[in-house]
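Researcher: Go.
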Amino acid sequence: MEPQNLSKHEHRRLKLEQRKLEKLKAVKGAGIMERNRKLLNFGIAGIAIIVGIALLALAATQQGNAPTANFVYPATPVHWHATPIISVCGEAKQIPLPAPGQHLGTGLLHTHEDALIHIEGTITDSSQITLGVFFSSIGVKFSETEIMDKKNGDACPNGLQGKVSMEVNSQANNEFENHIIKDGDKISIKFE
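Model: Structure:
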């Protein structure tokens, strides 16, 4: 039907139908916009969650207790120092020292009479500079279960059983003999 041949009643009805169609299109368009807005919000939330998880993972690898496998050593020669602090049953213990002017340990990983851990040379594998390698090279027993002449469960003079614990740079560390020594580390090992 053409608009000029319509009765008044049919003309009103046609206009009413056209308005309904326009409203329906507007509602449909708003629904699509609402759906798009929801998808965008979900996308932003998803990205925020992924970034948060990535930041947590990065923070975990930056702590002193990070897995040793993540350590990247330089390709050039180093001259690093770390400080070992050992306490057995509340008594400070010193690592064995070499004769004056000498070193005790390996060429790469050793100590001098200053009682510091020295790393001098080119590191070809991070396993070369672990606490276990250092203590073994200077003749000291060390692991998560023993330090020097004390093993977990041995009694201290106060009658209490002791246990080995370790902190690196004032942070609890459970790597013990597997800890890769880094420049400036302050390594506190206690048997209490």
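Model: The chain has two domains: 3-62, 73-191.
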